[in-house]
Amino acid sequence: MAQADHNPSNDEAIQRIVQSVRLARQPIVDADLNTVGYELLYRAADADQVARIGNSNQATASTVLNALSEIGLDSLVGGKQAFINVPGKLLHSDVLEGIVAPSVVLEILETVECNEQTAESLRRLKRAGYRIALDDFPPEAIDRPCVAESHYVKFDTLAEGTDRIVAAVPAAHRAGLKVIAEKVEEWDVYDRLRDAGVDFFQGHFVSRPEMVTRPTVRASKANLMGLLILLQDDEAEFGEIVERINTDLALSYRLLRLVNSAAIGLRRQVDSVEEAVRLLGLKAVRSLVYLSALTGVDGKPPALIHNTMIRARFAELLAAQSRLANPPTAFLVGLFSNLDAFYNQPLAQLIEELPLTDDIAKALLEGQGSLGELLEYVRFYEKGQWLEGDGETAVSSLNEVAPNCYLDAVRWDEALRASLGGP
324 φ, ψ to 5°? Predict the structure, then answer.
C-alpha cells in the first residue's frame, strides 16, 4: 500500500505544526575516561549553545518529555545513565513519580534548599526508583539533611576551584556519595582531581554538549487543559479519559512511545490507546499530560489534524458497523496513518519505534489484513472514489454504512473543535 497521501495544499499547514524537539547531551566519564552517562540539557533552539531558560519547570518538563517520549532514552544514552536537572516545584510534586525510569538520575538544582522537606522528597523519589545527584553543591555542606538521600554530588570546578574540591572529596566519600567534577576544562585539572579520588568527570576537556533534534507535533493546549482537569477527578470515567487522548495525535504518539521505552521497562505490543493507558496506569498518564502542558503547546490545531481526526473516527465507525475489526484498533490505524506527514519521517521508521501489534503495523505499511482493507477503503472514500462490491464482500457491507458513518465522523470532529475552542 502507498503511504499517507500528500496534498501540496497541506504544505503550509504541515509547516505550522511540524517543529523540532531539541536536547543537548554532554558525556560524564569515569577516571579512565569511559562514558558512564550523559547530562541532558534543555535547548530551546538549534543555535543555542547554552540553555535559554525562562522557566526552570518548563525546561525540566521539556527535557523529560523529549528524552522519554520523543527522542527516546535508547537513542540518547544507549543504556547508560541520563542526568536531568530538577527544580524545587517538580521535586516536591508527585509528577515525576508517574513515569519513573531507573536509568534517570535527577539532578537537584542548587536553588533547592537542602533541608528536611527536600530530604523527604528525595526519599520518595528514591523509593519510586530514581537515583539522585546534588548539582553545584557547596563542598562545605556535606552534613546537610538531603545528602544522606543522594547518590552523587556534583562540584562545579570553575566556581569552587580545584583546591576546595580536592579537600571535600574525603568527606563526600564518607557520606556515601560518588563525586562528579563538572566544568572540567583542562587536562591538568582532570589529572589532579583524578589523583584526589574524584569518581566522575564532565566538561569541555572531554566533549562539548552535542545537539540532538527530532521532528515533532505539538499537542492541543485546550485538550491538555481539559484532560488535566479530568484526570484530577477521581470519579472520571476511564472511557472519557481514553477518548480525550484519542483526539490528540501528538499525545497518543507520545503515550505509545512511552510504552515502548526501554527506560520504562514495559516493551509490550498494544492495539489501542486504551490498552496503552491500562498498561501505564492513570498516574503515568497524568504525569505525561502535565509535562506536555508545561512544555508549551499549540492552541489551534490546523486542518491537517482535523482531517486525520475524521479519518480515525470514520475508520472506527466503519469497524463498529461492519464488524470487520476492533473499533478502537481501527481508530488507532486511522490516527497513525498520517504520521509520516506530521513528523516528516518515513512511516516505516515511525512505526518501528511504537509498540504496535503486527496486525496494525502490516495494515499501516502493507495494507494487509482486515485493518489494511478498512484503511484502503477509507482512503478511497476520502477521494470520492466509490469501490464496487459484489454483494457478498466486505466492500459491499462498507458501502451500505459508509455515507452515514462519514457524516457522523465529520459532525464528531466539528463538535470536538467547538469543545476545544478551535476554528
Answer: -80, -25
Q: Is 360 in the same domain as 297?
A: yes
Do 249 and 296 sit in the same domain of this protein? yes
In a domain, 200, yes or no: yes
d(CA 60, CA 266): 23
- Residues 143 and 108 placed together within one structural domain of the fold: yes
- Tell me the C-alpha distance between 28 and 35, whole Å: 6
pLDDT digits (tens, 9 = 90+) for 114-135: 889 999 999 999 988 889 999 9
Domain that holds residue 92: 20-213
Residue-wise pLDDT tens digits, 67-102: 776 777 777 888 899 898 888 888 888 778 877 777
Integer Cα distance of 220 and 250 in angstroms: 8
Give the domain CATH number at 177. 3.20.20.450
Q: How far apart are CA 94 and CA 287, in angstroms?
A: 8
Evaluate whether residue 172 is within a structural domain: yes
Q: Which amino acid is at 394?
A: A
Q: What is the pLDDT of residues 324-362, one digit of tens each?
A: 888 888 988 988 888 887 777 788 988 887 878 899 999
Q: How far is CA 73 from the centre of its chain?
A: 10
Are residue 176 and residue 227 in the same domain, yes or no? no
User: Is residue 12, in this structure, part of any structural domain at all?
Assistant: no
Q: How many domains are contained in the chain?
A: 2
